[in-house]
């Protein structure tokens, strides 16, 4: 009886190299399917429509023991004062505290606010150097993607501090102050 012929050497290795990526992909998709939880099906809109809701009427008044008619009243909502947002919501992005810049060189100040500004809100950027505070500018909308930026060119050598103030009609929110060093050329 003749011995069965074996495939050439490396045959099984080539088969493994060919089918292993397919096997791993199927395994990965199976794990995702099992791990993904329930699927939500989106049904197409039905041809039938529900009738529009009709306003409901209040229940009829009832007689009480004293003979007065009593109608249940819905609770009256009370206006709550708006709570101011904490100052740490103004996120100063740059330049980092303690940075050194040569005088007469533009510096770009970046910050982020995680909420959209309303019509009565604006950011004011303040700069203090040599005990003098000046308003650098005001912004009412993001001007760098969803971030805010303002550029200044300091001319006085020494320590400087900058910060942002969110101003509204009735309140202000200040960011933390950020100190910079302006050096001589």
Give an overview of the whole structure:
The protein contains one helix and eleven strands, in the order H-E-E-E-E-E-E-E-E-E-E-E. The chain has a domain at 87-183: Immunoglobulin-like. The protein has one helix at residues 11-35; strands at residues 62-63, 69-70, 91-94, 100-102, 107-112, 122-129, 132-139, 148-152, 158-167, 172-174, 178-183. The protein is elongated and about 105 Å long. Residues 38-54 have low confidence and may be disordered. The protein has 185 residues and is of the alpha+beta class.
Ordered list of secondary-structure elements with their pairings:
Blueprint: H1 11-35, E1 62-63, E2 69-70, E3 91-94, E4 100-102, E5 107-112, E6 122-129, E7 132-139, E8 148-152, E9 158-167, E10 172-174, E11 178-183
Spell out the key features of this protein.
alpha+beta, 1 helix, 11 strands, Immunoglobulin-like, six-stranded mixed β-sheet, single chain
CATH class of the domain at 87-183: Mainly Beta
Strand content: 25-35%
Distance between the termini: 97 Å
- Helix and strand pattern: HEEEEEEEEEEE
What is the number of helices? Answer: 1
Q: Output mean pLDDT.
A: 76
Instruction: Give the CATH architecture of the domain at 87-183.
Output: Sandwich
Shape: elongated
Helix content: 10-25%
- Uncertain segments: 38-54
CATH topology of the domain at 87-183: Immunoglobulin-like
Name given to the CATH homologous superfamily of the domain at 87-183:
SOR catalytic domain
Instruction: Indicate the radius of gyration in whole angstroms.
Output: 35 Å
The largest sheet is: 6 strands, mixed
Which class do the helix and strand fractions yield?
Answer: alpha+beta
Number of strands: 11
